[in-house]
Specification:
Shape of chain B: elongated
Largest sheet of chain A: none
Number of strands of chain B: 0
Radius of gyration of chain A: 33 Å
Oligomer: heterodimer
Helix content of chain A: 55-70%
Number of strands of chain A: 0
Helix content of chain B: over 70%
Strand content of chain B: under 5%
Structural class of chain B: mainly alpha
Distance between the termini of chain B: 60 Å
Shape of chain A: elongated
Largest sheet of chain B: none
Number of helices of chain A: 4
Number of helices of chain B: 22
Number of domains of chain A: 2
Order of helices and strands of chain A: HHHH
Strand content of chain A: under 5%
Structural class of chain A: mainly alpha
Chain lengths: ~150, ~400
């Protein structure tokens, strides 16, 4: 009976009841420390999960309310635009097809390099299209590059 | 006259370091080991900031001296139970390294290191994904399962707790727990040997963890891409250290000192109004404490403490603890992946051990080996910083349960 982990044994553990003296532990103490220890750590961190999760929700709600307020203020201050007569024109074919994310900077850099090339060999080039290569992961090239820089030592 | 000359020369010889070295060849072995560590630190650059002070401390404390007052470190002082007379003896008769080691024995250095870590840690990924706390908790399974294994080998509670905490993969926490539990009278182990094992395995994270990560996960699981995390607000980041300190101190007061200093450092950083203090804590203070900690922990590795079977047991159980911690984190991450329908890459589970940021980098590296466009670093930082809090809580639990 002495070797069975009981609620009483577990309760006793909390008060530093296991002697640190140089003697082996009995099986109830071994199991008790393992179970109680892991249990308390998981319980403690579960409480933190809950608290931080609730805080996150609270702050998200506050942030959303503030944004809505600001948007309402801006809408009040901005005069309503007078609808101008719009001519139905066919939309021009886009010269540059960007991927889903904003790639303006990438296109600007590519254009600058092409401009330098045209200066070098005297020929005029025009950038007509920038398309992602096959197998493109969908991430912005600059973001990819930044992340590569951060993890390059590995 | 010849007799007098012979007596003088004999006297000089018998009080020389060379005589003492020949008298105790184990010291020579330790000095040679310290040279190997110095080589690894300087030439191979293995954790040089820690390994060089530790190896030089080892060298200094094993230098032979016949007269006790010439020794820089007295291992026998630290094998006695602490009392007010004992403190007087250390301060009065101790060498330089004895006095520096008081910072370890009185748990000053580990807490100051935690302060520095707090100023360098961004808890943003953890705040953005609080579920990471669970992975940080699971990885502490290594500590408690190793406690079970060590106790089954017939070790005392103080020894089991001190060895098991190595599984938290946190040097300062290991020093904090072992310096409280081990007092020399209750064990043949010393805080120095525990610290040496802990720092050795922390340096070996890139060797130990990938093996278990690849063994316990499938290629498909390793390739899982996780969605981007939200960015927490500054207010959240400021409230976080206060909330964590409050919850931990209410639940496990023994962990209050470690977690309190960690969170103090963090609130200094996140408040944005104490830049000078943050700068000092993360640079000057951290470097000074690292020097004192390294050289004084190195000093405890005397021949008597290291060249014995107990040290071998610590090293073996240490790697078991570390591996179990990694596996527990991976298992929980696999379960979470299964529950969420494939949204969590199990590789981030191994980062639940608190070797910051090394364990998170290993998750990133192993993930990138499967798919170079997979970026797990920020996702793994959540469990990684949760592991620091988790191992401090686990330390508090051990200190609450075991009388010292």
């Amino acid at each position: 009976m002495n070797h069975i982990i009981t609620a009483h044994n577990l309760a006793m553990l909390a008060g530093g009841s296991i002697s640190g003296d140089k003697k082996p532990l009995d099986p109830s103490e071994q199991g008790g420390v393992t179970l109680a220890g892991l249990g308390i750590v998981i319980a403690g961190l579960l409480i933190l999960v809950l608290v931080i999760f609730l805080f996150g929700k609270l702050f998200d709600a506050i942030g959303a309310a503030q944004k809505a307020k600001e948007a309402a203020k801006v809408a009040e201050k901005t005069p309503k635009p007078v609808p101008a007569p719009v001519k139905a024109e066919p939309a021009p074919a886009p010269a540059v097809i960007a991927p889903a994310e904003d790639e303006d900077e990438v296109i600007a850099v590519i254009s600058a390099v092409v401009a330098m090339m045209s200066e070098a060999d005297g020929t005029t080039y025009r950038v007509k299209s920038v398309r992602p290569a096959a197998g493109f992961s969908g991430r912005a090239a600059w973001a990819m590059d930044g992340r590569r820089n951060n993890v390059s030592p590995f | 006259m010849l007799q007098i000359l012979q007596d003088i020369l004999m006297g000089l010889w018998e009080t020389s370091g060379m005589y003492a070295l020949l008298d105790d060849p184990k010291k020579l072995i330790m000095i040679l080991i310290s040279f190997v560590f110095m080589y690894l630190a300087i030439v191979k650059e293995y954790e040089p900031l820690l390994l060089l002070p530790i190896s030089f401390g080892m060298f200094l404390s094993n230098l032979p001296a016949v007269l006790p007052e010439d020794l820089m470190f007295h291992a026998e002082f630290w094998n006695e139970a602490q009392s007010s007379e004992w403190f007087w003896k250390v301060l009065h008769d101790g060498g330089l390294l004895d006095k520096l080691y008081l910072g370890v024995k009185l748990q000053i250095y580990p807490c100051l290191i935690f302060l520095g870590i707090g100023t360098m840690t961004d808890f943003g990924p953890l705040i953005a994904n609080p579920k990471s706390f669970l992975l940080g908790a699971a990885a502490q399974g290594g500590i408690f399962f190793t406690f079970l294994a060590a106790s089954m080998m017939g070790m005392s509670a103080a020894e089991c707790g001190s060895i098991a905490i190595i599984g938290g993969a946190d040097g300062p926490t290991s020093i904090y727990v072992s310096s409280k539990l081990l007092d020399g009278a209750n064990s043949n182990l010393s805080t120095g040997t525990i610290a040496l094992a802990a720092y050795t395995y922390m340096a070996l994270v890139p060797v130990i963890q990938p093996f278990w990560m690849k063994l316990l996960t499938t290629k498909k699981e390793r390739a899982i891409k996780m969605p981007n995390l939200r960015t927490p607000s500054k207010t959240e980041k400021i409230i976080f250290p206060i909330v964590v300190t409050l919850v931990v101190a209410l639940l496990v007061p023994s962990a209050g000192a470690l977690v309190g200093m960690l969170m103090f450092g963090n609130i200094l950083k996140e408040s944005g109004v104490c830049d000078r203090l943050v700068d000092t804590a993360q640079n000057a203070l951290m470097n000074i404490v690292t020097i004192f900690l390294g050289i004084s922990v190195g000093a405890t590795t005397t021949a008597g403490n290291v060249l014995n079977l107990d040290f071998a047991k610590v090293m073996i159980l240490g790697v078991v603890a570390f591996s179990l911690g990694t596996c527990c984190g991976l298992f929980l991450a696999k379960i979470m992946n299964w529950v969420t329908g494939g949204k969590i890459n199990p590789l981030i589970g191994s980062a639940g051990v608190s070797a910051v940021p090394m364990a998170a980098r290993i998750s990133q590296k192993v993930g990138a080996q499967t798919d170079p466009t997979n970026f797990l670093l920020m996702h793994a930082m959540g469990p990684n910083v949760a592991g620091v809090i988790g191992s401090a809580v686990a330390a508090g639990v051990l200190l609450s349960v075991i009388a010292y």
